[in-house]
Design a protein that fits this description.
single chain, elongated, two-stranded antiparallel ribbon
Length: 129
């Protein structure tokens, strides 16, 4: 699914159950293209920037220029190679997600050391001004 109107315009979604409305458009790859390869391709930063930069701006919102999107020429490796590329990129995203989760746990652990009265009898508590 591709978000047609923003913000954020051209957000790429997949694997979400439910229905959709006119704000989203379905990206259906042809038989010679893997849907996972298409998902990663649409998120490639240069392609993403090109589409967003050339989006139509009407009524205060950005909208994906479908003609521009359909006109983009992309290299299409054999289907087996597309699947391999998508698997590698999926695995890399899994590792990035695990790293983000580990960093968040480390941040909360560090904060708890400063705020835990059992280990720090004089904790410094910051208050919003």
């Amino acid at each position: 699914m591709i978000e047609r109107y923003g913000p954020p315009v051209f957000q790429i979604l997949r694997g979400l159950p439910g229905s959709y409305n006119v704000v989203l458009m379905k990206a259906s790859p042809k038989a010679e293209m893997s849907k996972d390869y298409l998902f990663h391709l649409l998120q490639e930063p240069r392609l993403h920037h090109h589409v967003v930069a050339n989006s139509e701006h009407t009524a205060g919102q950005s909208g994906v220029n479908l003609i521009l999107l359909e006109a983009i020429k992309i290299p299409l490796p054999p289907l087996a190679e597309q699947r391999r590329i998508a698997e590698v990129l999926d695995r890399a995203e899994e590792l990035r997600a695990k790293r983000r989760a580990a960093l968040a746990q480390l941040d909360s652990l560090t904060l708890s050391l400063f705020l835990d009265p059992a280990t720090n009898p004089n904790p410094v508590v910051y208050q919003a001004r």
